[in-house]
Amino acid sequence: MASVEFTPNLSRHIECETLSSNGANLRELIDEICCDNPQLKPYILDDQDRLRKHVTVFIDGVQVQDRKGLNDLINMESSVYIAQALSGG
To answer: What is the pTM of this model?
Structure first.
């Protein structure tokens, strides 16, 4: 199973411990983890089910390229990191 971790600043808003997923691509992974924790979805995806502008996802250390279709592939040994950017001054 792929391991899914979240940036600490996201953990301050909602409970999101390290998770596991069987998803074959990023879309399947997000659907699976949000099914178990529906509060995650609005922090990760916008109203068109695309990655929010302030969210970046890395699969095995490589930033995802398909922010709309979420078709980046994931294998069973992958490490996925979901980061929410901070802004302000």
So the answer is: 0.89
